[in-house]
Amino acid sequence: MSSTAIESTADTLSRLGINADFASSAPNLHKNLQLLSSGQIELAKMLLEMGQSHLFEHWADPGVDDEEKKGFFDQVDRLNSSYPGGLASYVKSARQLLADSQSGKNPFDGFTPSVPKGEVLTFGDEDFINFEEAGIREAQKAAFVLVAGGLGERLGYNGIKVALPAETASGTCFLQYYIESVLALQEASCRLVQGGCQTRIPFVIMTSDDTHARTVELLESNSYFGMEPAQVKLLKQEKVACLDDNDARLAVEHRNKYRIQTKPHGHGDVHALLFSSGLLKIWHDAGLRWVLFFQDTNGLLFKAIPASLGVSSTRQYHVNSLAVPRRAKEAIGGITKLTHADGRTMVINVEYNQLDPLLRATGQVDGDVNDETGFSPFPGNINQLILELGPYIEELTKTGGAIKEFVNPKYKDASKTSFKSATRLECMMQDYPKTLPPSARVGFTVMDAWLAYAPVKNNPEDASKVPKGNPYHSATSGEMAIYRANSLILRKAGVQVANPVQQVFNGQEVEVWPRITWKPKWGPTFAEIKRKVCGNCIISQSSTMVIKGRNVFLEDLSLDGALLINAVEDAGVKVRGSVQNKGWILENIDYKDASVPEQLRIRGFRINKVEQLEKNYSEPGKFSLEP
Ligand code: UTP
Questions:
Q1: Is 16 in the pocket of ligand 1 (CB under 6 A)?
Q2: Ranges of H-type helices in 16-125
Q3: DSSP secondary-structure letter at 225?
């Protein structure tokens, strides 16, 4: 910076009336002013005003590279611009939340829990089919948002979670399954419009520095799994600053005093990112009505989406949380209505370890107990949300995109004056309803867990230690859940699917059903699946069936072995008769066996493809597969 520029910096400071303060609160910084742009000086001023002068303690140390100081301000600029209200707002919220935490303030003080209103669905009955139909009609007015910025520490997989196969019979990874499911909904929804429609359902992926580059690579190296690249938008979340003490002093890195420690802020960032990106407004202007949020590893989710979206539109829910029946005290949050003594109400996820004490503290002496259905009346939140776009934009406009945060410091001792390590504010996607007015229509849709929820979160070792009867939420259980759901759906559609056998993989006992899988476009709804199946179909337990094609019809099929059908869009294939071969066999492998690829070893088995009947239909036309 030239000497005139330095003078003008000093002038700016004196005009701002901060010269003296500025110099006295950070003399080391003052010596470095010639390095800084006016924007950076504004940031420095903000930091000083927010009690962060310690950040400049080392600025006069000899031998420090000026690039480090510039790098510091680049980072501050990023932290400032990526947080609604900027860093000043972050520090202010942090002080309040840290004070509340130190004083042991109960966030539920004054609130009484009760069971909210929602829809409980039974797969395959008339209501379910009607809701699915309504959902398919609405799908062309929906946008889908996948939150995929998480580290996945519990799973410990080296790659990104969305690149993992959801199941290994077809080898489809989670991201492919999600994209193909959205495309299947798009097609099915457009078919209901006379003359068709050109709708392209928007698909957003929230990534983070931990997942961004590998997500882009996965999409690009697979031609976006068939989606138009313009349909897909990636929004990268930034980390937030760590806090060293109850005064919310920002923590510097141990190895580099010119960098602030950062940690993930949580999946709640998705709301601020959607808002600040302008996408919500674009969607609203384009006539969209719904935004659906979902997570990175639930291979069942889209079996629940059409009916849940139908519930949102039929019941006119501003917020619809997807849920599963939950046993009392089960380690899954409960969807709860909270009514405050002052009249405020909200319908919100209450963590399982808070629900029981809250019920007891408000006069329900037995706490969280099962009712006559054998389940807790508070449904289990699976963190998949459907929001109505108009009210969503209205609410975020009020909050600037911010949602309620929390802090969870690990204190050194009972005095709660110092932390074991730096903490930070966090936020969760499902806490969005916390700021909604009482007029907001907040409900839920409950579906059986076998149909809707099988996340892959736990590594084999931890999963094998899960107490009996509780879900493993591992790669093993996630894959088996897909085969079970498909088997049960086909049973409901009239197919005689054999009973499962129990097997143990990676120390986890699971039900092994026939390995049945299909492309989402084959069966986006139950009504569509029923249309594809007729006559007396039988599938044995040891069978595998992989359907890749839209117009594949099963008629009096008897399958005992492996059957793979690949058919292009306009090929109509009738499959009948008896298919018998040695099939595909599941072979145990150990998760510690480093010679096996990681994505297989974490499930504890691999498929030995001994013998199969595979048929390819690459031309349009009508075909019959009769072995
Ligand atoms: P999880 O609870 O599975 O957390 O996140 P995680 O961080 O991925 O895994 P662990 O806790 O380290 O084992 C639920 C969903 O929210 C996303 C995840 O990618 C997953 O889809 N997520 C989580 C984000 O997008 N950003 C975050 O900061 C955290």
A1: no
A2: 19-25, 27-30, 38-49, 66-81, 86-102
A3: G
Q: Is residue 446 a contact partner of residue 333, using CB atoms and an 8 Å limit?
A: no
Q: pLDDT tens for residues 474-507?
A: 999 999 999 999 999 999 999 999 999 999 999 9
**Ligand 1 and 150: CB distance under 6 A:** yes
Instruction: With a cut of 50, say whether residue 1 has pLDDT above it.
Output: no
Q: Model's pTM, two decimal places?
A: 0.94
Phi and psi at residue 580, in whole multiples of 5°? -135, 125
Q: How far is the CA of 513 from the centre of ligand 1 (A)?
A: 29
**Structure confidence by residue, pLDDT tens digits, 554-593:** 999 999 999 999 999 999 999 999 999 999 999 999 999 9
pLDDT, the chain, mean: 93
Q: DSSP secondary-structure letter at 273?
A: H
Per the CB < 8 A criterion, the answer to whether 149 and 269 are in contact is: yes
Q: Is the beta carbon of 455 within 6 A of some atom in ligand 1?
A: no
* 266 in contact with ligand 1, CB cutoff 6 A: yes
Crossing angle, helix 126-139 and helix 174-191, to 10 degrees?
90
The answer to whether residue 4 scores a pLDDT higher than 80 is no
Average pLDDT over residues 292-300: 98
User: pLDDT band for position 31 (50/70/90)?
Assistant: low
Angle at 260 between CA 255 and CA 265, to 5 degrees: 125
114 burial level (CB within 10 Å; 0-12, 13-18, 19+): middle
Q: Is the CB of 284 under 6 A from ligand 1?
A: no
How many C-beta atoms lie closer than 10 Å to residue 61's C-beta? 9
Q: Say how far apart CA 321 and CA 348 lie, in whole Å.
A: 9
Verify whether ligand 1 is closer than 6 Å to residue 209 (CB atom).
Answer: no
* Structure token pair of residue 591: 């998760």
How many other C-beta atoms can be found within 10 angstroms of the C-beta atom of residue 593?
A: 10
Q: Which residues contact 340 (CB under 8 A, 6 or more apart)?
A: 110, 111, 112
Distance, in Å, from the CA atom of 120 to the CA atom of 446, rounded to the nearest integer, reads 5
How many other CB atoms are there within 10 angstroms of residue 58's CB atom?
15
Q: Which atom of ligand 1 is nearest to the CA of 161?
A: 19
Question: What is the pLDDT at residue 517?
Answer: 98
pLDDT tier at 15, thresholds 50, 70, 90: very low
Predicted local distance difference test score (pLDDT) of residue 140: 97
Unique residue bearing structure tokens 């699946």: 529
For residue 69 the two structure tokens come to 């100081």
- On whether the CB atoms of residues 310 and 133 are closer than 8 A, the answer is yes
Cα gap 566→442, rounded to integer Å: 43
Give the DSSP letter string of 463-498.
HHTSPTTS---BHHHHHHHHHHHHHHHHHHTT-EEP
Residue with tokens 């995929």: 148
- What is the reported pLDDT for 23? 54
Q: For 55-69, 246-260, 289-303, which range has the lowest pLDDT when averaged over its residues?
A: 55-69
- Residues 242-260 have a mean pLDDT of 96
**Of 378, 346, 379, whose CA–CA distance to 364 is shortest?**
378
User: Is the predicted pLDDT of residue 16 greater than 80, yes or no?
Assistant: no
Quote the tokens at residue 80.
């400032």
Measure 479 CA to ligand 1 centroid, in angstroms: 19
Reported as type and span, the H/E element at residue 101 is: helix 86-102
366: Cα within 13 Å, side-chain hemisphere: 6
